[in-house]
Each structure stands twice: as structure tokens, then as C-alpha cells.
């Protein structure tokens, strides 16, 4: 195994995401030998922590992953903390000097990853200071990992990209979308392109429709303030759902390079059909907001949410791709909070060979189970010559999943390798925003009737009606 040499600087080391996701991911990389002697992590935040405080937080955060206490203590010696206000230019000089010292100590050859896990409003401040204060090294690689959201519309995304580009080129920017780190999401390309069974009919000749479901039982929890300005469409559809759609619709890339994959995804996102009239939007998009139920508060009663909020917590959409191979194939997408299921699923409905026989159905199950199921037709067992569908399925076991890299772990590792295959290119982000902006421009003209579904129910009735118009139902 080649040893990776780097200093990872984490902005937002005292935050929620760092302790819930990032420290466990980095520890697993260390545990599995991908990070070792030539590695150091500098955590930063305004909080006045010592290195020991940082190590204490990391120790607690990775507790569930620990198999060897001595190895954990060794890992913790690679963790450092520097109190740093990202708005204070002088602090960058301290950081630069500390990085240089650790670079010497750990022989990291000038390689740097800057991971920004704090409010996106601060991304440009940080990247600009990294550049002007000379923290970008000449002798190694410099990569930037940033968290979502990347803007809140096309204009803000363009502005953010312009500012980031003053310090980092596109090929140095890694936008984390943790869905792209999930096992079954990464498997989509293999399933599609490495099976003759699917590859030749993965178009409007063979496929009737797709369903992409990103469903959550939880409400907004303590994210009310952020969510009330965002809503389901910006929070889930613009990034996660449209990324899944792009993976399902893209042509086979000419090779396995990140550039080739991104190029194909860009083509799809640039070809999303933009509804032209408000009537078209009304007919094909169902917004929802949860109201109170016996066991749950309604959205408008949640903490830090306006009591007359019209933010959508649910969206069901019929998305179309304006390319010849996808003409007439709807991509039905739904996401919702406080619904009666917690699951992330892709359903592919194939066309029947003849009327009266069910078309094949492929379910790619991303969560809670990890695996897939294919319904195939065969003869009813016994004297009958009728046809019925039976499942072929493969689900990973808990033991297998425990050995599989987790989403953040995998994506951080891919960034260390410089592999952008599972990161969205800026143009993907921009095209996705253009699609979403168009929806909002129409929605501005339609007053929603919220709340329109009960917390804990399956979602608004109109979402079922949307599919009923096509004589189908949401797969459960
Ligand atoms: P958080 O808990 O509020 O943490 C914010 C971090 O930013 C803290 O470490 C805070 O440290 C630091 N910070 C704030 N102002 C600073 C300043 N002026 N200088 C230096 N550090 C400063 O936020 P989070 O939930 O971890 O989220 C971080 C990022 O990840 C956000 O972009 C969010 O949108 C994204 N994200 C989070 C989640 C999640 O599940 N949490 C999921 C997806 C995306 P001090 O207070 O010590 O300064």
C-alpha cells in the first residue's frame, strides 16, 4: 500500500459534522493503513482548545470504531488544534508556520488538503486568505474539500465559484455530496454498464420509468433556521436527487476517468427539461409541508421555523431529460421529511415484452438495506403455464457492511488520491441550479396550501395522483 503523505487542515473542527462524521472517517482511514506516519491533522475553530481538548473530542467521536486502544493513542498523536478565526488575517500566518513545522516533522512533502466544514458564507474568506497569506504550497498538491450547499441559486453558485477560483482551480475543488460516497450509488455504473442484460436496453426502448425516493422519518430536528431558508428542493433535489438521476441517465463514459464521467453527467444535467409554463409546473410537481399529528409537531411549530412558513418539506416531481434516448421516460423523484419511511431507493421499471405481463423491475436499495433486487418473469410452478415474477436479490450483510468504507471515509480517501469521479463538477452544480431556479420562478406565482400532509404519513395525496395519471404507483 502506498503511503499517503499530507497535512489535512480542518476548518470547523469543533463543529457537529466533524465529530459525527469526519473524525470517524479519518480514523478508519488510519486504521486501515491509508494514512500513517506521514500524516497530520490540524483542527481549527475560534474555540480556545488545546491539542489535548481536540484529542479528547476525537477520542469520544471515534469510540465505536476502536479495536486497538494503543493504535488509537498513536492516531491521536497526529491530531493538533490551532485556535483560528477565519476572518482574522493574522491567524493565517500562525497556521502557515504550524503547517510548515508539521510538514518537517511528518515529512508530508508540501501536500495539503483544506477541508472547510463551516458556513458556506465563509468559504471565500478562507480560500482568499489561504492564497494571499501564502498557505498554498509550491512543492506539493493543494486540494479543497467543501461541504454543501454550493450556493442557493445559479447566481450565488456562480459568484461562489468565481471567488473560489481566485485561489483554487476547478480540478483542486472537491465538493462533497455524501450520497456519491455510498456503496450502491457507486455501484450504479457497474450495474448499468457491466451487464449486457441492462446496457443495451437502458433507454426509452427498454425502460418505462424511474423512481428515485429519498425519504426521511425525521423532521427538521435542530436545523430549523437553515432548513426554513432552504426547503426540500434545495436541500435534497438540487444535489443528491439530481446527482442520482445523472448517474442513471448518463451515457457510458469513454473511460473510467473522472473527467469522462463528469462530462457525461454534465450532458444530462444540461438537458433537463425546463417546464415552460406555471401550468406545466402545477401538473408535474407536488410540493408538501407536514402538519401536526398525534405524535409529532407540524413543521410550522418546529423550533426556528416561521409560524406562517411556506417552505416545502416534501417534493414529488416528474423530471424529464430532453435527449432522444430518454424521450417519453419520466424520472419520478420524491423526497420528504416526516414521512412514514426512512429509505433511499432507486426503482427502474422496464417495459413489458407484451401487454398483460409485468415488466422487469430493478430496485437499487441504497438505504436502509444495501443491495439490489431484480424481478424476473418465469412460469408458475406446476401445471400452470402462466407467468409470474420472482425476485433475484443480493443484500450485503452487516458483517460485509462493517468492512465497507463509509461515505465520508471513501470520499476523503478519493480526494487524497486526487480522484474526482464521485465529486460534482461545477457545471453539474450550475445546471442543477438552473433547473431549480426555473421551478421557483413558477412557484412564486402559486400560493401553496400548506400544511398538506400529516407528519408520519406517506406524504401529500397529490403525489400519488401525479403517478396515477401515468397509471402507476410509487413502489413501497
Ligand atoms: P456547526 O456545528 O455549526 O459548526 C460550525 C463550525 O464552524 C464550528 O467548528 C465553528 O467553530 C466554526 N466557525 C464558525 N465561525 C467561525 C469563524 N469565524 N472562524 C473559525 N471557525 C468558525 O456546523 P456543522 O453542522 O458542523 O456544519 C458544517 C458545514 O457542513 C456547513 O457547511 C453545513 O452546511 C455542512 N453540512 C453539515 C451537515 C451536518 O449533518 N451537520 C450535513 C451536511 C452538510 P467555533 O465555534 O469554535 O469557532
Describe this structure in words.
It holds the Pfam family G6PD_C. It is an enzyme of class 1 (oxidoreductase). Belongs to the glucose-6-phosphate dehydrogenase family. It is a single chain. It contains 16 helices and 16 strands. The longest helix has 26 residues, at 224-249. The chain is globular and about 75 Å long. 41% of the residues are buried. The mean pLDDT is 97. The protein has 2 domains: 4-147, Rossmann fold (3-Layer(aba) Sandwich); 180-405 and 425-469, 2-Layer Sandwich (Dihydrodipicolinate Reductase, domain 2). With 476 residues, the protein is of the alpha/beta class. Helix 6 (154-164) runs antiparallel to helix 15 (426-443). The strands form 3 sheets. It has an 8-stranded mixed beta sheet with strand order 8-10-11-7-12-13-14-15, sandwiched between helices. A 6-stranded parallel beta sheet has the order 3-2-1-4-5-6, with helices on both faces. A two-stranded parallel sheet has the order 9-16. The protein binds NADP nicotinamide-adenine-dinucleotide phosphate. The site of NADP nicotinamide-adenine-dinucleotide phosphate has 20 residues, from helix 1. NADP nicotinamide-adenine-dinucleotide phosphate (NAP) binds at residues 12-18, 45-47, 84-87, 117-120, 147-148.
